[in-house]
Amino acid sequence: MRRWSLPRAAGVAAGIAVAVALGCRGGDETPGNEPAGATSPLARSHVLLITVDTLRADTLSFAGYDRPTTPFLDSLLTRGLYFERALAPIARTTASLASTLSGLYPQRHEVRRLWDRLPEAVDWLPELAREAGYRTIAIVSNHILTRERGLDRGFEVYDFGDDGRDARATTAAALAVLHEIDPSEPTFVWIHFIDPHVPYFPAAETARAFDPGYEGPYAQSFGGKPGSIGREAYPADLGKEGAVFRNALPPRVNEHVRRLYAADVRATDDAIRTLLEDIEPPLDEWTLIFASDHGEDLGEHDYHYDHGDYVWNPGLHVPLALVMPEGDPLARAGRVEDWVSLVDVMPTLAELLGVEVPADIDGHSLLPYLSGAAPAARPVFAESGQSFHPGLIRGRVNFGVAGRLRTVIDGRWKLVWTPGQTPEREFALYDLEADPAEQHDIHAPDHPEAARLRELLRGWLRDGAAPSGTPSDADRRALRALGYIED
Questions:
Q1: 187-193 and 135-141 as β-strands: parallel, antiparallel, unpaired?
Q2: Cα 314 to chain center, whole Å?
Q3: Do residues 69 and 265 make contact, with C-beta atoms less than 8 angstroms apart?
C-alpha cells in the first residue's frame, strides 16, 4: 500500500531541504526574534494551532464531500502535508485536547471525563513554550474549556468563550487579541472553534444551497437555540434520546440534517478564511497545524448527531494537516496514508517551538514525514468517553472507566474490545480496506490478526500507567479483564 505521496519535485528536494533546515533556521527570521529558549534549528517564530470541534475528516470537500464545505481549507491545507488517517484518542473534547497538547493518551494524562482537571504532573506544551521564551495565547470557544479544566496552564492570554461564541465571533475575538501582538515576538497561538457542534445553525442561505428544494422539518436549523448545550442542544420535539439513540426520522429528513451539519462546516471555513486573511503577523509568517478534537457520528451504526459513546471511525477520524510558510526549507505538499494520532501533535509542536520533547510520552513527531523518508507505521489507539445515557449504549455492559470500549488500528485492521461482554461478543475485528464502514465483524478467536491486535491492546493498557507510574484502579480492572494481570 502506498503510505505517502509528494509531488515529484518536492520529493526529490526533500532530503536536501531538511538538511538545510538542520543547519539554519530558514525563512526571514533574524536573531532579534528568535525564541530565548529555543535551541533547535527547527524552531519557528510564529506557530499556530487551529482546532475545530466535532469536524469529521470526510466532510472536507477536498476529502471527497460532494458540496463545497471547505473551499478555503482546501486551498490552504493542500499547500502542506495532510494526514489522511488521523485518529482522535477519544471523542470527548476535554480529554482529546488534553492529549493533543500533552502527547499522552487519556489513560495517562487522567482527563477521562469532560469535567476532569489536567493534573499538574503532566508536561504541558504551552508551559514548555512559555518557558522557552514564546508568548502563549489561546482563544477557545466551548463551554467545557473553562479555566477549571486546567488547560489554560502556561497561557499568558486565555480568552474563553462558551458555545454561544460561534465561528464568526471566535474569529473576531482572535483578531482582536492577535492585532495587539508585537510581530517581532515569538508567539504560539491556539484557537478552538465550537462549530460545527450541535445545534446545527448554518446561515439560511447556506442551508438552502446545501439542500436546495427541501421543505420539511428543520429546514434552517437542527437543535435548540444557538449556543445551547447537552439535551437543550437538540430539537425540543425529539429530545436528545429521540435525535441520537432512538432516531425515527424519515430518511429524507435525516439526510437534510446531515446537510445542515455540512453547511455549518462551511460557516467555520468562512470564519477561518477571515481569520487567516487578516491575521497579524500575516499568514506567510506562521507555521500552522490544523486539526479537529474529534468527529461526529451522523447516523452510522444507528447513532446520530453525537460522539463519544462508541469507537466507530466517524467519531474518531479527524482532519490533520501541517502547513509550513511558503519558502520555508521544510515546506512540503503531499498526503500521508499512515495512521497517526492526535497525541503526535504535541511532539510535533514541541520541535517546531524548539523545546525538548518529553521522553516519556505516547506521541511521535510528524516532522520526519517532511524529509521524504516516512517513519515506520505504528498502531493507534482510542477509547470511548463517559456515557450520559448508559441504558441506551448498545453492547456495553460496564459503564465505569474500566468498561469503556477500546480500539486499536494497525494498517488495514481494527480491533474493538467491549470489556465484560460475553466471549463471542467481547471482540470485533474489521478489515478497513474491504469494509471501511465497519459493518462486517470478522473476528474469530484463531484469526491471526485478531490475536496480534489483542496483544497490541494489552501492551497499550499495560504501558498506559498515569504519570505516577501506577495504573488506576479502573485500568487495573481493564488489564485483569484482558487476562494480563491476576492480582
A1: parallel
A2: 12
A3: yes
* Residue labelled with grid coordinates 434520546: 241
Q: Picking from 32-36, 102-106, 309-313, 401-405, which range would have the lowest pLDDT averaged per residue?
A: 32-36
H-helix segments, 29-124:
71-77, 93-102, 106-109
What is the gyration radius of the CA atoms in the chain, in angstroms?
22
Taking a C-beta distance cutoff of 8 angstroms, is the pair 160, 142 a contact?
A: no
Q: Tell me how far apart the alpha carbons of residues 78 and 382 are, in angstroms, rounded to a whole number.
A: 27
Contact 427, 483 (CB under 8 A): no
Phi, psi angles (nearest 5°) of residue 135? -75, 140
Distance CA(419)–CA(406), nearest Å, equals 8
pLDDT in tens, 187-235: 999 999 999 999 999 999 999 999 999 999 999 999 988 888 888 999 9
Which residues neighbour 132 within 8 Å (Cβ) at sequence distance 6 or greater? 35, 36, 37, 38, 353, 354, 355
β-partners of residue 320 are 291
Q: Which three cell numbers stand for residue 424?
A: 463471542
Q: Which residues contact 209 (CB under 8 A, 6 or more apart)?
A: 263
Q: Answer whether 94's CB lies under 8 Å from 88's CB.
A: no
Burial class (CB in 10 A: 0-12, 13-18, 19+), 366: buried
Calpha distance 180→157 (Å, rounded): 12
26 phi, psi to nearest 5 deg: 75, 175
Q: What pairs with residue 161 in β-bridges? A: 141
DSSP conformational letter for 32: G
Task: Tell me the pLDDT of the chain averaged across its residues.
Answer: 88
In sequence order, which residues have a C-beta less than 8 Å from that of residue 292 and are 6 or more positions away?
Answer: 51, 52, 53, 54, 55, 56, 57, 88, 318, 319, 320
Beta-sheet pairing, 380-383 with 187-193: unpaired
Q: Which domains does the chain have, with CATH numbers?
A: 4-199+259-378 (3.40.720.10), 395-481 (3.30.1120.10)
Q: Is residue 417 a contact partner of residue 426, using CB atoms and an 8 Å limit? A: yes
Query: Is residue 304 a contact partner of residue 218, using CB atoms and an 8 Å limit?
Result: no
Long-range contacts of 75-78 (CB under 8 A, 24+ apart): 76/276, 76/288, 76/290, 76/323, 77/290, 77/319, 77/321, 77/323, 78/333
Amino acid at 86: A
* Bridge partners (DSSP) listed for residue 415: 408, 429
Alpha-carbon distance of 355 to 349, in angstroms, equals 9
